[in-house]
Amino acid sequence: MSGLGTADMSLKRPSADDQQGQAKRRTTGQNHPPSKVLHARNLPPGITEQQLMSLIPIAVPTKVLLLTGKNQAFLQFEDEQTAIAVVFNCPQVQMMAHTVYIQYSGHKELKMKEPSRNGGPGRVLRVFVTNQIVPITVDIFQRVFSSIGTVLRICTFTRDGQLNALVEMSTPEEAMACKMQLHGRDIYTNCCTLTVEFSNQESLRINPSDDGSRDYTLGMPGMMPRVPPIGYVGQVPGVPGVPGVPGLPPPPSAFGMGPNMRMGHQAHAVILVSNLNKEEVTSDHLFALIGLYADVMRIRFLYTDRSSALVQIRDNTRVGLVLENLEGVELKGQEMRLKMSKFPQVKESQENDAGTYKDYSDTTKHRYARPGSKNHQHVYRPHNVIYICNIPETASDADITALFSKAGTVISVDRFTNDPKMSYLTYSTTAEAINAVVDLHSSSLGDKDLRISFARPGRPTKPNPAVTGQ
To answer: Are the C-beta atoms of 112 and 186 separated by less than 8 Å?
Structure first.
């Protein structure tokens, strides 16, 4: 994980007088002196290393050590001054409805060790699956890991809502090869990402009556020949247009994928969004927010519960992005809950809809309708800084501030020096930035319709006279 530089920081650096005092007092009570290694606790269950890297919006850690199962991690920054500034500005960070606490650790340096070969790394691996939008069975695990070596036993289980597996290989060398080649890879393209670690167990004992386990040394069902390595990006045999690992079965038809799928077709998917503020949240709000991560086609609020809505998106491969970035996010004062729906699509309008249904199929505001669009490269979880484009060149910073103050307290406006049609805008809270996205997206300023999304974390901001009065 080393070698990643520190991002540009829009933060107040404490003075020499308060570095040892005020910054330290804003930790959660530990008395460790300042260090470039910070400790994060109360992390969301199932958080990935990639998500952890983006935890601090104002600086990028150079090393990360995730303590799986403890909801804790260590983050090392480029130098002690950067770490002091992070603690001073961000003693608490919101992530997936969890308040993550940042404080100094007792370590001066993170030493990242691979398992020692003196006693040999174990041959049992522990595997986590994130961004899972299709079911993964024990036999699919066997196909994936047998692409590297001989699989002896597999045990699968679910913990904290996340799929886990223990995989026993025939030798420690094969286990090491699996870890090196499969860690961080997708089983199917853009979903079902593997995190591979060594387990403390020396071998596995399999219960023959457990459907989630297999002992392949006993000739149980599931013994299969090796398949090409997972690094190969190809098509699932017999299913044109569905990328994935050759030899693996296609994702199930419940997600719109099946043998009759046409070449190039992107199947729809439906997400159930619940715990909405039924007095304030509209279908246009959901279209604007979810539309940052996937093209929304139809929305229907439930007749029996207006605090829940079914949202149909164009491309099922983007379901993981929607769930990962918006689960637990606050919209109009309530934390949204998202999950896959059992329905394959949202039904079209009926006579008695009473305003519960809206169709966005023909809108020109879809972000991902054009193949190769740069929008695919700029997908960020909600935070307090937004990106605005299509600003009239005649509009002043004061004009921008006046409009966006309707959504919350504007801290700064940072126009692009080389293109004044674009700007970053910083709010005091993430909830206010979300209000701006849902309330002001496509609103007019002068003769232009604005486009709003969340800015890249870590980008610089600076106070603006139009906001501060300086």
So the answer is: no
Res 305: pLDDT: 87
The Cβ of residue 315 has, within 10 Å, a number of other Cβ atoms equal to 17
Residue 55, classified by CB atoms within 10 Å of its CB into exposed (0-12), middle (13-18) or buried (19+), is: buried
CB 189 within 8 A of CB 233: yes
Asked if 75 and 12 count as a contact pair (C-beta separation under 8 A), the reply is no
* Residue closest to 318 by CA, chosen among 326, 308, 310: 326
Q: Which of 416, 454, 448 is nearest to 435 (CA)?
A: 454
What's the CA gap between 86 and 75, in Å, rounded? 11
Per-10-residue mean pLDDT, the chain, length 470: 36 49 44 87 75 68 76 86 84 80 88 49 87 80 87 85 88 85 79 84 77 75 38 30 41 33 49 93 95 93 89 82 87 92 77 76 89 78 93 92 94 91 94 95 87 81 42
Provide the sign of the torsion angle of the four alpha carbons 198, 204, 210, 211, taken in this order.
positive
Q: Return the DSSP state at 78.
A: S
